[in-house]
């Protein structure tokens, strides 16, 4: 009889244990964004533009993971590929501004090698404007980008900063 009373809570706890990792891991972090951007940059170098852009816009791994996706811009700010919104390909986003009036696309396309650009952007999971930290890798005339959203509200957003880093690899 005691087993009867314990079985329902035990089943509930077991189900919660199965679901908890999924709930906790629905977002990719900055280090995962950086790793994906570097992987995508290598794919662009090895596959060429057409095959790489197709791969970046295809659903699923390795270029989609939870809320992480690839987007590629040319030096003029024109979207070449976009993993979350493929219909954006061909759009000029150079003067696009975040909710604070910051022209972050100009910062992204000006990245000389690789580094971070922080800005506010619409989160596809919540529909809210959230801080986004995007890792940018220059590959010739393109920048390959992957951004990680923060769960902080817009008012708690970290101050904008561009932190270029230098690649140790020779090209």
UniProtKB/TrEMBL annotation:
InterPro entries: sCache_2
Membrane topology of this protein: Multi-pass membrane protein
Keywords for this protein: Cell membrane, Membrane, Transmembrane, Transmembrane helix
Domain Single Cache: start-end pairs: 31-152
Main location: membrane
Keyword Zinc: no
Recorded GO CC terms: plasma membrane
UniProt region (Disordered), positions on chain: 151-171
Intracellular or extracellular location(s): Cell membrane
Identification of the protein by name: Single Cache domain 2-containing protein
Phylogenetic lineage: unclassified sequences, metagenomes
């Amino acid at each position: 009889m005691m087993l009867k009373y314990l079985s329902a809570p035990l089943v509930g706890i077991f189900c919660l244990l199965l679901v908890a990792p999924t709930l906790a891991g629905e977002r990719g972090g900055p280090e995962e964004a950086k790793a994906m951007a570097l992987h995508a940059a290598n794919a662009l170098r090895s596959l060429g533009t057409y095959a790489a852009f197709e791969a970046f816009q295809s659903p699923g791994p390795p270029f989609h993971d939870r809320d992480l996706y690839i987007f590629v811009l040319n030096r003029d700010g024109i979207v070449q590929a976009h993993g979350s919104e493929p219909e954006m390909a061909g759009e000029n986003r150079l003067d696009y501004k975040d909710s604070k009036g910051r022209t972050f696309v100009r910062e992204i396309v000006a990245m000389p090698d690789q580094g971070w650009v922080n800005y506010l952007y619409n989160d596809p999971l919540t529909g809210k404007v959230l801080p986004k930290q995007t890792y940018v890798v220059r590959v010739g005339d393109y920048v390959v980008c992957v951004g990680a959203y923060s769960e902080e509200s817009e008012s708690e957003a970290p101050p904008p900063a561009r932190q270029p880093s230098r690649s140790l690899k020779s090209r």
